[in-house]
Amino acid sequence: MILPVTIYGDPVLRKVAKPIDKDYPKLEEFIANMWDTMYRSDGVGIAAPQVGRSVRVFVIDATTLAEEEPELADFKKVFINAQILERSGDEESMNEGCLSVPNIREDVSRKTHIRIKYMDENFVEHEEEYGGFAARVIQHEYDHLEGKLFVDHLSILRKRLIKSKLTAISKGKVKVDYRIKVPGK
After folding, report:
1. Annotated catalytic sites, by residue?
2. Which pLDDT does position 185 carry in this prediction?
3. Is the CB of residue 60 less than 8 Å from the CB of residue 77?
């Protein structure tokens, strides 16, 4: 089932998400709905807060980018209760967008490497290292679990320049090709 994407201005996007256990109600169905929602919205990843649930779950499928980045050929994963243990490498700036902040794209600086611990959909624990685009996407989705959005990484000047666009989004004055949940409605 395709879920509405929670957009900028909704308080759920600013909460630190709670960990879950394997008894979380209808987890398998929820993860399937997250995949459906992400694919329908043309996203590479989506986090639970983006579909209105403040829990520590996100999914990523970057396999469509494998032509440009061959290391992403098999990069389709579910991350539950993720914890970034280390960020390393240089700061690299790259243009990012977000389903919850539609029609805004900005350059965001992030570390090029991470080490992360998480559970997969079967609650098997993993500790892995990622670099490049995979590290960027993980950090972007992980930010959602911490109540952060990519626009929080912008300079004060850039934030001022896009303030009216953000206000419009928070009022639902935005055109997208996917279902959205407007704050307060």
Report:
1. 141
2. 80
3. yes
